[in-house]
Specification:
This protein has 416 residues and is α/β, with parallel strands linked by helices. The chain folds into two domains: 133 residues, Aspartate Aminotransferase, domain 1 (Alpha-Beta Complex); 255 residues, Type I PLP-dependent aspartate aminotransferase-like (Major domain) (Aspartate Aminotransferase, domain 2). Bound molecules: pyridoxal-5'-phosphate (PLP).
Length: 416
């Protein structure tokens, strides 16, 4: 694909996003390149939430009245949309959570707490987001198992030989890996990693936060035991997210939070648990957010995940080419062909925060810092990077504006 061919009408897509129509500063349009942190929302998602609150706001699963039935139907319909979107075998395997962080904590606190003990090993990778490190460290401190990390090679990919050796040499019970890195953009070979984990008798948990918004994901083809992602990075509201788990594993796991909806019977001396997925969904859920997630899935399907992925790869490839033209810029991670829609970079002699600050005054929103991946930055001997991350509505002209902005940054700090 060249910069002139696109698989859908990007301008028509942009028109769906109210926030993209506004000025960032007076006379300066918004160029939003912080999509790995959170995506913007189309009016179709905003309208779905608005419609729920205006027309049929009620609690779900409990009411006999018409409003509650309508809310329950929409909320459960959204679950089925997600089930199809990730090709889960059964809607009972699709658990609503607040996001990726909650999904991982749920697995740690239920499966992990019940199954991990002294002598066991959990394998993570050096590129994980904090949300796939800290829950395991917290549990390890309590349970006494150890954590080993797959190293990251200089080209930004995982050291698969080291991974094989870890599985061979240690009693590994669980592998936790991100599908796509939020810093390097590396698309990890999770299907191979799952096969290798299973051959070694381990389960695999995949952090799909940066994958599900951007590429077609089929949890059955990957053979992931657990797969989790956040709605807010895929056009849906904050507070929406999914934990997928294989049914037999979920059936065997104890619940996490206790309360309404997750029980089948409560007496003063004990309780029994509801069937899946409700066993893991205690309390009044985020109904509007779930309905919004369903609308986001509809929107993504209307463009086609293959098209979105192809467009993002093309625009990321273009961004990498243009970034390479700027003297002093170093981009981290693999080539565009094996990369998600992110470009984390440094500009020689200028702190990432200063880069982001000057870009912001030009209307360009990027992220700067460690992007919740401090261990990875330490491995790369970096304190901070600036990160431009793209989504289905970004344009080639916006990439050009980023490059112009970087020259402005250089001029601003010249001789400083
Ligand atoms: C790869 C990855 N994992 C996990 C998370 C955490 O997601 P959330 O904050 O939505 O729970 C993020 C968010 O930045 C991420 O990029």
């Amino acid at each position: 694909m060249t910069s002139n061919t696109v698989p859908y009408d990007v301008e028509a897509v942009r028109a769906d996003f109210p926030i993209l129509q506004q000025e960032h500063h007076a006379g300066v349009p918004l160029i939003y390149l912080d999509n790995a942190a959170s995506s913007q929302k189309p009016r179709q998602v905003i309208d779905a939430i608005d419609d729920y609150y205006r027309r049929y706001n009620a609690n779900v699963h409990r009411g006999i009245h018409k409003l509650s039935e309508a809310a329950t139907a929409a909320y459960e319909e959204a679950r089925i949309k997600v089930k199809r979107f990730i090709n889960a075998a059964n809607k009972r395997e699709v658990i609503y959570v607040r996001g990726t962080t909650e999904g991982i904590n749920l697995v740690a606190q239920t499966w992990g707490r019940a199954n991990l003990t002294v002598g066991d090993v959990v394998v993570l990778t050096q590129m994980e987001h904090h949300s796939n490190i800290v829950p395991w460290q917290m549990l390890a401190a309590e349970k006494g198992f150890t954590i080993q990390y797959v190293p990251v090679l200089p080209d930004g990919t995982l050291d698969m030989d080291a991974y094989a050796a870890l599985l061979r040499d240690h009693p590994v019970k669980l592998v936790g890996v991100m599908h796509v890195s939020n810093v390097l953009g590396t698309v990890n070979p999770v299907q191979d990693m799952a096969r290798m984990a299973h051959d070694a008798g381990a389960l695999i948990l995949v952090d799909g936060a940066q994958a599900v918004p951007h590429l077609p994901v089929d949890v059955q083809a990957l053979d992931a035991d657990f797969y989790t992602f956040s709605g807010h990075k895929m056009l849906a509201p904050t507070g929406s997210g999914i934990l997928y788990g294989k049914r037999d594993l979920l059936e065997a796991m104890p619940p996490w939070m206790g309360g309404g909806d997750m029980i089948s019977r409560v007496t003063l001396t004990g309780s029994t648990w509801n069937e899946l997925p409700y066993k893991f969904e205690a309390g009044t859920p985020s109904v509007a957010e779930g309905i919004g997630l369903g609308a986001a899935v509809d929107y993504l399907n209307s463009l086609g995940m293959d098209n979105i992925h192809a467009y993002e790869q093309a625009i990321t490839g273009y961004a990498l080419e243009r970034l390479a033209e700027v003297p002093g810029v170093t981009v981290y991670g693999p080539e565009a062909a094996n990369k998600g829609a992110v470009a984390a970079f440094t500009l020689a002699g200028i702190h990432a925060h200063d880069v982001a600050q000057v870009l912001d005054s030009a209307g360009i929103a990027v992220r700067a810092g460690h992007h919740c991946a401090m261990p990875l930055h330490e491995c790369l001997s970096l304190q901070a990077t600036a990160r431009a991350s793209f989504y289905l509505y970004n344009t080639y002209a916006e990439v050009d504006a980023l490059i112009d902005g970087l020259y402005t940054v250089k001029r601003t700090f010249a001789g400083a």
